[in-house]
HTH arsR-type domain-containing protein
Amino acid sequence: MTEPLDDALRAVAEPRRRAILHLVADRELPAGEIAAEFDISRPAVSQHLGVLRSAGLLHERRDGTRRLYRADLSGLAPLRLFLEDLWSTSLDTARELAEAEMNEVGTNEVGTNEVGPARTGDRSAAARHAG
């Protein structure tokens, strides 16, 4: 058995499946209406729906002979947590790099930790008033 995250990642890797999820994110649609949105065969759309359903990303409800689909947001939870963790880690790394660069720039000044006019070649306000 595969992990829910792996199933979700494989399912959303295909652009048409992502488009299907967008279509049914906030409304329930019959398979025929979903299929009408794509230039592929109905059986191909049905396969995509099956992959999404197997991954836990799509809820299917039967109404007589019709099958109605809606995104299952709880199935997206493992994917969301994974992406949030990546994002958080990336932001932490970016912050650490920026802080390290600022510290490096500040300590590379001529005997000072200040960043400013000495680096840009501009005279300080005190020097302008003195001379």
Q: What stands out?
A: The two ends are 79 Å apart (CA to CA).
